[in-house]
Fold these 4 entries.
Entry 1:
Amino acid sequence: MWRWHRSALRRRSDVVEGVVLMVLSVLLVAGPVLMGVLAFSSTWHTGVRQEQTRHSTPAVVVDDARAAAPSPAVRPSNGETTATVRWNDTNGTEHTQTVRLDHGGKPGEQVTLWLDQHGSPTQAPPSPAARGVQSSAAGLLAAGGAGAAVLLTRHLARERFERGHDRYWGREWMEVEPRWARRYHS
């Protein structure tokens, strides 16, 4: 707070440094909280929007594309299956397309297929629990990133101010040192 008091030793650069560091300190508290809340809210509403715009429909597996894969190295190990499925839309029109399925995939097997608002196959919307986890993770990552960015900016600003102080004191010392050491020449 000494930067705000009137003093013959106070320089304009001291006031600028005080303002910059105060603003960065406020941002260090408010910035991560704001970024975390915004990221959480955005991710949550994206999940809600997906839940509102996607719907499930029954589909029948026509062809097991995974069985046709040339080697086990090409097949995914997480249980996903690529298969050709057939389904009817709300108008009764039949569609056939190769899609990725979480499980299943044998010809004739009935599976649940998720469609977007245009009727195209898509992933299932996240469950409320998954949406909460995703939103929380996004919020924490955004808050951490914002906090790290403000800390880095504050560190760089302090380094720059310190270099300015060193230059200033170096110039002052060049003027004062000869007199101080009794080597002043007129």
Note: Strands lie at 55-64, 81-88, 94-101, 110-115, 121-122.
Entry 2:
Amino acid sequence: MTRIQANLVLLLAAAIWGGGFVAQSTAMEVMAPFWFVSVRFMVATFVILPFALAETSRATRPLTRPERASFTGVGIALLGGATVQQAGLLTTTVTNASFLTGLYVVLVPVISLALFRRAPHWIVWPAALTALGGIYLLSGGDLAALTGGDLLVMICALFWSMQIILAGHAVRATGRPLTLCAWQFAVTALGSAVIAAVTEPFHVEALRQAYLEILYAGTLASGLAFVLQVVGQRHTPAPQAAIFLSSEALFGALFGALLLGESLPVSGYAGCALLFAAVVAVELVPLWARRRTIAARLAEGTP
């Protein structure tokens, strides 16, 4: 898979996650948030498990203990991101949450540099800030007074950053994207079920009323989209992947307008333009730089 193909795969994952905002929004009308997270990832686990087992049967060696530990670490990061975000949404606004969650586009290159000493291409830094500005405008460009929920959502952005970084590292080290997905889904489903059992009542009727949202979130927004994420990250560095994945805010606004009748202010369209510019810059600037380098070497007669 080429870098361009991998980036298109990441964009598709972001588009599916954008549609997941609609499913999650409507499901919360009848279902408790932590139970929704648990059931969603339980469905995702069963959807991916047969493919993960087939991948395991074709593997030339079993996973080592450190590799299994790294898969569990990805699952814990996903669990933290999914549950802390839900807890934050109880005491903050959707506008604040959508902007603060998008902090991961800046956190990913910073954490990657700190943990792995991997400096991203220079275009990632201005593109990350551009994408963050786009998310801010897309969320309405008007943050209310910060609350305890805002702090939780900022912690959530840290968890999402770690999930993106650790998933990319684990899948490149093992070449087992489907196994990684099944593993992180199972960890998230089990962990959120424990939290839900302690904090929320469970109603079978809620499952019946929200079954369409559960199926979408479990099969597509979780099962398919996270597989696309880890497959794409085999060929795209985490800082660049974060830029492409951040376009989920753009797709969320699009699906909200199409399916829920929501409308964007002028600032929202400006935010869409900034996000699109960030994605295009991250894709084209390194490509142009490589072509210029090749052309210069050919002109000098350097092989």
Note: Residues 266-300 form the longest helix (35 residues).
Entry 3:
Amino acid sequence: MSRIGKKPIDIPSGVEVTVGAEAVSVKGPKGSISTPIHPMVSYKVADGVVEVMRSGETRQECAQHGLHRTLLFNCIEGVSKGYSKTLEVVGVGYKVSVQGKNIILNVGYSHPVQFPLPAGIEAKAEGSKLTVNGIDKQLVGEVAAQVRRVRPPEPYKGKGIKYIDEQIRRKAGKSGKK
């Protein structure tokens, strides 16, 4: 029995969950988002609670049960509170700024790197910190990972773009002649 799948999901006030033929759509104060329905999983919405049920007990059905419950929970959490990831730019002369729907990164290349933001994602730069916000947890994480890939942190001085809570494993530099 899936421990995650059998937990009911509470629907916060101001959030509306609609089960359709091919997708479950969720509307809330921050926007609307939908997640696809798998044929092995069914949904029941009643009294401010969503229950996710599966059709059988096979390994595949158990896996889909927990997965689709978590996807729906992430949608409800996203439209009510939203998700954010914070990145930090470390290095002498390294800067980050946001102009419209583009992130401008000056991270040691001969030219500034322009990173276009996809629809539904917002970014805010404060000094050397960049915060990526949105209602889709997967998209927020993917955009933050793509920004980090522009200049990943290097192990000697720790220069580059890193997550705010990331610990960089440092290496010792060259040792002098003996």
Note: Residues 59-80 form the longest helix (22 residues).
Entry 4:
Amino acid sequence: MSTIPPCPKCNSPYAYEDGALLICPECGHEWSADASAQDDDGHIVRDANGAELKDGDTVTVIKDLKVKGSSSVVKVGTKVRNIRLVDGDHDIDCKIPGIGQMGLKSEFVKKVQE
């Protein structure tokens, strides 16, 4: 019987070990063996600089972002407080001052050191 846990992304039982990583052949998801024991969903959200993000963090936008369906733009340097991490393509759910509720991709933000 295998002691390798199932894939946290697709729950496939066919995951295999490749050095320090575990790999799922069905969905291609890779995760570290020690992180699977620590993290329930196996998903760590990182900002543009590679810093790990958590719920409640404050981030800064690093690129002008057009708001879809509007003529508004989220400017570089906009500080967003109290973010919430969600699953999906836009993995940050937040409220931006002057614009309102929206989803952001973690690749366009950097964590503010507090």
Note: The CA atoms of residues 17 and 23 lie 6 Å apart.
